[in-house]
Amino acid sequence: MRSEPDRTDLRTESRLALVQERPTPVLEWSDKAGVHRAVITQRTLVGSSEQSQLRVMDRQVSRTHFELEPREDGLWVRDLGSLNGTFIDQIRVERARVPAGSAIRAGSLTFTLQRPEARKVDLWPTDRLGALVGRSTSMRALFMRLVEFAKASAPVLITGETGTGKELVARALHEYSPRRAGPFGVVDCGALPETLLQAELFGHVKGAFTGATANRDGAAAAAAGGTLFLDEIGELPPDMQPKLLRLIEEGTVRRVGESQYRTVDVRVVAATHRDLQARVADGSFREDLYYRLAVLPIELPPLRARLEDLDLLLAEILPGKPLDAATLSALKGYRWPGNVRELRTWAQRARLVGNKEALAMLRSGQQEHGGLPAVSTATPFKQERERWLEHLEREYVTALMKKHDRNITQVADEAGLDRSYVHRLIKKHGL
Fold this sequence. Notes:
Blueprint: H1 7-17, E1 19-31, E2 34-39, E3 44-47, E4 54-55, E5 66-71, E6 74-79, E7 86-88, E8 91-93, E9 95-98, E10 103-106, E11 109-122, E12 128-129, E13 132-133, H2 137-150, E14 156-159, H3 166-175, E15 184-188, H4 194-202, E16 203-204, E17 216-217, H5 219-222, E18 227-231, H6 241-250, E19 252-253, E20 262-263, E21 267-272, H7 276-281, H8 287-293, E22 296-299, H9 310-317, H10 325-332, H11 339-353, H12 355-369, H13 381-403, H14 408-415, H15 419-428
Parallel strand pairs: 3-4, 14-21, 14-22, 15-18, 18-21
Antiparallel strand pairs: 1-2, 1-11, 3-5, 5-6, 6-9, 7-8, 7-10, 10-11, 12-13, 16-17, 19-20
């Protein structure tokens, strides 16, 4: 790995020279508390809950009503299963782009989208941060945000598709933080049953359950003074959620089989590929826990949204083996549902059988499995399971959309799904 210049100097240099202006949408509305104006710089949840990022004072607005997302092509709104619905210019929508000058209605409130303002965005001055690489604007802006977030001790929630590098981001947050000399602990919330997950996270005393032959501290205590990374937080069982909330809010844990709580100094960084806001809306994930985890949110772009990084990533994965223009062009034409993880798998295959054969296998997998390679026992079960889940969602919804001529109501009825969930799947897979 290349050595990096002094981190403090990099922060200063980036602020002085490497900036980019980006149009930023502005939202205006009035409620019982007065007239409001908000610049939307990132995904923002709007609702009547005290913990909403944009809280509005209206009884007809749901606690988690809708989400705003600024994108390159404008501001997008997504309803979160609200009781009264979300409307754009009198048309009820599940997800839609908001035209400039249009109005969003939720409850009795009207939100107007004003002309975007220009906003300067800091860019990291190099194409790498720790083990992360990327020359695209989205990644260099992300690197800058990571360094800023690393200074704090507040929880971070990392979201993004499977294979986008969420654990690498968590490690970068640790490595650039004042806690870098402390431990970095990892717990996969989706890999253990609830009874073992609680013991893994908080520890246990001797005799607490079958197999507990000695006292053992959990991952939270083991990471004291450092960072605790909770992967797949969306899989956290309901009974575990209040226990994690206590750790975050009070900094205390209780081992299984023990009655007293212990104080633990640890920073929590969580990650998920699930839609946690939708889970909050349907009641499967605690609202208060979501807001405590998402104090500092980070969303990772999929590989297909930053294809300008492809050659740089391949140079990192296959050092000393440059690709010809035809191979690189073919790789850029692929959707990469498994993101960087799938790119690494292709590179390993290319090293063994050559670029031409590896490309043929990639195309064959795309035709046979809708872009998903054949099952491989060389990768962990969890990775294969997630890749096939992505495949199932994409192919199932695609088939129903074709069958019903993209009629979302008919698709939802036949699938036995809520329309809002169908819309989320369509967005997730770019359908």
